[in-house]
C-alpha cells in the first residue's frame, strides 16, 4: 500500500465522462495536477464529470478547487463499470468573488473505482473545476 493522490493522470486516473466540453478547457485538466488549468461547463445545470481509477482506492479526504460552484454532490461506485453510484456528500459552497473555492471533504475512508461529481447549481451561468485532490491509498491487487 502507498499513500498517493489517486486523482492524478500520472497515477492512472481518467475523466471518462463530462457533460460539457470546450477544446480550450478539456475535462482532462481536472486531473493534470495543476491549479492554473481547468475544465469549464457550458451552460445549463446540472453538470457532471466522472473520474475513474485503474484499481479500487480508499479515500479519506477529497479537495476540490473550483470557481462559482454553488451546490456540489459527490458520489462513488466500486463497480467494474461506472454504475450503481452511492451518494457520499452534498454541500452548498460559499462564493468567493475573484478567487478559487477550495473545499475539503473528510470522508469515512470510502472505497471507489469511480467518483462522480455533480454540480447541481452555480452562482453564474458557467463554472470551472481546476483540480480534484484525493488523499488515499491505492489497493495493491
Automatic annotation (TrEMBL):
Molecular function GO terms recorded? metal ion binding
Pinpoint the F5/8 type C domain residues.
18-121
Note the SUPFAM superfamilies from the entry: Galactose-binding domain-like (SSF49785)
Which domain of life does this protein belong to? Answer: Eukaryota
Location of the protein in the cell:
Cell projection, Cilium
Q: Which InterPro entries match?
A: FA58C, Galactose-bd-like_sf, IFT25
| GO process terms (BP) | intraciliary transport
Q: Which UniProt keywords apply?
A: Calcium, Cell projection, Cilium, Metal-binding
Would the keyword Metal-binding be found if you checked this record's keyword annotation? yes
The record's Gene3D superfamilies line, in alphabetical order, gives: Galactose-binding domain-like
Provide one Gene Ontology cellular component.
centrosome
* Assembly, per entry: Component of the IFT complex B, at least composed of IFT20, IFT22, IFT25, IFT27, IFT46, IFT52, TRAF3IP1/IFT54, IFT57, IFT74, IFT80, IFT81, and IFT88. Interacts with IFT27. Interacts with IFT88.
Report the sequence similarity comment from the record: Belongs to the IFT25 family.
Its function, per the record, reads: Component of the IFT complex B required for sonic hedgehog/SHH signaling. May mediate transport of SHH components: required for the export of SMO and PTCH1 receptors out of the cilium and the accumulation of GLI2 at the ciliary tip in response to activation of the SHH pathway, suggesting it is involved in the dynamic transport of SHH signaling molecules within the cilium. Not required for ciliary assembly. Its role in intraflagellar transport is mainly seen in tissues rich in ciliated cells such as kidney and testis. Essential for male fertility, spermiogenesis and sperm flagella formation.
The record ties this protein, via PANTHER family, to: INTRAFLAGELLAR TRANSPORT PROTEIN 25 HOMOLOG (PTHR33906:SF1)
Q: What protein name does the entry list?
A: Intraflagellar transport protein 25 homolog
Can you name the source organism?
A: Pogona vitticeps (central bearded dragon)
